[in-house]
């Protein structure tokens, strides 16, 4: 669309279905991971060639006015005050002088979506419709009857629509109008739907744009946050889209001894007592969850709820967490192709792992689980295996990894104690389990050797340097020579069993601080310093330098205690830098692969820290690997 057009956001309503939340916060400003819904809408429309944005105000207008005054688009926003609520049609009529300049787009303020608005506009402009409604098949809201050419035929209750009269569809809350439509709106309060019907009766075309087929390869995201359950679902969907299970607003300074499970969102200026347990909860701004004060008293567990200033809304778990078509809850946000579901077995929560028919890691995970459990490595208990269906049932280790646990600000001593517990497990793998490696034939033959180290560095070049940074290696032969020397050196180090991806997202913290190690099917026989690099120099969580040094010393002392004089501290320290280099190149390669090939874009947020660590590594080895140093410093 070459000519700028105006946009109108309907934001005046009281949000009755969302009470009591909207008694405190106007619906457009209800937060989703620290940002109000209105901001998501503005971000979604910001790439369009619009002229001005109109927003109508009535309920809690002062709050919205204040927010707009601090918004980056404030110079392009015009506010339309309504002394009494004018409803959807009256709001547009009230802004007639603003909207009658040309084509305009209207967006409800309670809709979160990634609908392709540019495609909607293009379709409208080529259709000669007076109105184009963005629609989709959404059984809960299907009340539009649309003919085979995509034109609106009528509107009726969802349950009463005769399918033979036309296709059923639902309005998304987004539409494009021509200014002539404003003539069908009376002065004063009115609904826009009646004006649609009047325009149709007058012979104008009221068309539709199916957002599920209009230029999309996959169904776009859409959520009407009109009820507490729908709002909670949108918040938890946003978490999943970011690859997270926890969101803690930066204003939260401490949450010591607070137990988090499931999905938890804590918005700004909340207060929490010690010994509070939260599972699948959203704490709205200014919530007070302190034992003995406020609305919440002496509760061991707050579960499946929204908490606000002085109120609590109970929710149904199945309505707020994403489920697949068969009703199972899909869990996990990592890079694995295997699918993990939460289910019930004998009234106990379990995790069902479903592998594809050609997944070699299925057999490894079963054998490794039995082996590790036998030697006191805390991996999830194996409950049942069905090899024919490539399915296994495991103990439910919860949703909170060490990575997520550390989202909530903790005392330094609490953080260090957690890492010491992790190191205790790691040293058991490197010693006790390694001593009995002959009991696991599949693991015994999985050697982290020269070829695998070279695969990692090629992976880094292809998936990160070339595909993500779009950089070509200038001296390819020199680089290959350095990678050859690095792999030879790393392969020469003494080997133990290593997890190989021993980072904070693969360490689950259960209620009571019990640990469970996951994603161990990739374990190999390799240099133990690789695991140490994975956890102590982890792009997912940056440890303070002094704490990292203390934890490295703790690992060394634990290895000495478990192996006696056979552990050579000096030689081990000499292996660290090579393993740092290998590990951080592998991690960046993985972030590139997972984001560009698997479509999990949220892995890109870990790139800056991964790159910072790699630059630290290579700065210590620039004389040994000068070509690699030049390349990394260009990234």
Explain what you see.
The protein is of the alpha/beta class and 635 residues long. 36% of the residues lie in helices and 21% in strands. A hairpin with a 4-residue loop joins strand 24 and strand 25. Helix 14 packs across helix 18 and helix 19 runs antiparallel to helix 20. The longest helix has 28 residues. The radius of gyration is 29 Å and the shape is elongated. It starts with a strand and ends with a helix. The relative contact order is 0.07.
Structural features:
single chain, 635 residues, alpha/beta, Spore Coat Polysaccharide Biosynthesis Protein SpsA, Chain A, Aminoglycoside 3'-phosphotransferase, Chain: A, domain 2, 3 domains, 9-stranded mixed beta sheet, 5-stranded mixed beta sheet, elongated
Q: Summed up, what is this model?
A:
The chain is an alpha/beta fold and 635 residues long.
| Amino- and carboxy-terminal Cα gap | 37 Å
**CATH homologous superfamily title of the largest domain:** Aminoglycoside phosphotransferase (APH), C-terminal lobe
Rg, Å, rounded:
29 Å
- What's the tally of helices? 20
Tally of structural domains: 3
What is the global morphology? elongated
Number of DSSP E strands? 29
**Average residue pLDDT:** 89
Structural class: alpha/beta
Largest sheet: 9 strands, mixed
Q: Report low-confidence residues grouped into runs of 5 or more.
A: 158-162, 293-298
**CATH architectural grouping of the largest domain:** Alpha-Beta Complex
The CATH class label of the largest domain is Alpha Beta
Task: Report the portion of residues in β strands.
Answer: 15-25%
In terms of quaternary structure, the protein is: single chain
Helix content: 25-40%
